[in-house]
Amino acid sequence: MNAAGTADESVSCRIESVEVHAFQLPTDGPDGKEQDGTMEWDSTTMVLVRVHADGRTGLGYTYGDVSVASFIESQLVDVVRGRTAASPAALAELMGRQIRNAGRPGAGAMAVSAVDVALWDLKARLLELPLIHLLPSWHDRVPVYGSGGFTNYSLDRLTDQLGGWVEQGIPRVKLKTSRDPESDPRRLAAVRKAIGDEPEIFTDANGALGRKQALYWAHRFHEEWDVRWFEEPVSSADIEGLRMLSERGPARLEIAAGEYAYTSRDFVNLVQGRAVDCLQADVTRCGGITGLLETAGLSAAHHLDLSAHCAPALSAHAFCAVRRLRHLEYFHDHVRFEGLLFDGTLSPDGGAVRPDPGRPGLGLDIKWPDAERYRVYGTPPT
C-alpha cells in the first residue's frame, strides 16, 4: 500500500471509547484566593476528555465548572463513539446539532471544545504527526505575554511575578485592574518601575467599568504608564461601549475582547460592531480547533489580529494555524495547572512558545499519579 493509502487507513478507524475526567486545583493566591475586576475564586477546574481508537488516545480539555463533564457524558459521548476518527470537523457539526436544545453557548460550547480538541489530537497521533503539522499552519512559534497580576496581590508579589516574566525574556506582561480603580495608579507605577521602560504593560478590567469611567482610565493608563492594551474595559456584551473606547481612546492603546465568544456569531458581532482593535479567542470555549479555524478566517478577512486566550499547552499548536496571529496569554493559573498534570508542556524561549515537532499530537502525556489528588469527577483509567 502506498504512503497515502496507509495514512487514509490509519484514520478511517472508529472511535472506540470516550473518557471524561475533571480535576480541581486550589489557587496559590493570598488566603487561597485570586481576584480580578469582577470576580473572586479559590480554585481552577479542568475538564479533560480522552478519545480512543486503534490503540491511540487523543486528549482535550476546557476550563470550566465540573458540570461541563456531565454535559459531555450526557450529550456528546454517544455522538462521537463509533464514528470515524478521520474528520473532527464533521463531528463538530454533529455535536453542534446535538446540543442545540441543551444549550449551545457557555457550557455547551466548552464541552464541544474539549471533545473537538481531543479528536484533533487523536487524528494527529494516528498519523504520527505533531498537531502543528496536521493543521494548516502559518507559524512555528507563538509569542506570549505573561498574565496574572491579580488585584489582591501585594505590591511585592505583583512586581515579582511580572518582573520575573520580563527576566525570562517575555517582553509584555498583563495585570488585572479596576476592582478598586483608585488603587491602580499605585500598582501600575510599581510595575513600570520594576520592569523598566521597554517592556509593554497590558491591563484587563474584566468588564468592571462603565463607559465614561473606562474612557477616563484608558487615557490615564496610556499617558502615565504607557499601557498599550486594555482588555474588556467594559463588558464584552457592550459592543457600543467597546467601539466608543476604541474610537475615542488613545491611538496606541488597543481595546481587546473575545475570550467569552462561544459561537461564530459572537465573533461576527464583535467584528461587525468595530468593537475591538485586536480580537481574542479561547480554543477551549469557541468550539475547539474547528471553531478556532473559522474565527481565524474571520479575523484575516477583516484585517484584525487574533490573540489566544489562555490554555497555553493547547493554544501553542492551535494558534500556529492563525494567519493574523498576535500572541498568547501565558496565564499563571493555567501554566501552573498544566505543568502539574502533563508532561510535554512548553516553556517560553525568547518570548515565544514553539510546539515540539518530535512529539505526536499536542505532545502531552498525563501524569496520572500527580493528577489523581486533584480529581473531582470520573474514575482513574484502568
Characterization of this structure:
This protein has 382 residues and is of the alpha/beta class. It has two domains: 3-129 and 368-377, Enolase-like, domain 1 (2-Layer Sandwich), CATH 3.30.390; 133-365, Enolase-like C-terminal domain (TIM Barrel, Alpha-Beta Barrel). It has helices at residues 3-11, 67-75, 77-80, 88-98, 107-126, 131-134, 155-167, 184-195, 211-225, 239-248, 264-272, 288-301, 312-318, 332-341, 368-371, and strands at residues 17-26, 34-35, 40-41, 43-53, 56-63, 142-148, 172-176, 200-204, 227-231, 254-257, 278-281, 306-308, 325-331, 342-343, 352-353, 365-366, 375-377. Strands 6-7-8-9-10-11-12-13 form an eight-stranded parallel β-barrel, surrounded by seven helices. A hairpin with a 2-residue loop joins β4 and β5 (56-63). α7 packs parallel to α8. The longest helix has 20 residues, at 107-126. It is globular. The relative contact order is 0.15. Mean pLDDT is 96; it is low at 1-6.
What's this, in brief?
By secondary structure, this protein is an alpha/beta fold. Helices cover 40% and strands 21% of the residues. It folds into two domains: 3-129 and 368-377, Enolase-like, N-terminal domain (Enolase-like, domain 1, 2-Layer Sandwich), CATH 3.30.390; 133-365, Enolase-like C-terminal domain (TIM Barrel), CATH 3.20.20.120.
Strand content: 15-25%
User: What is the class of the largest domain in the CATH system?
Assistant: Alpha Beta
- Helix/strand structural class: alpha/beta
- As laid out across the biggest beta sheet, the strand order is 6-7-8-9-10-11-12-13
Kindly provide the radius of gyration, computed on alpha-carbon positions and rounded to a whole number of angstroms. Answer: 20 Å
Number of domains: 2
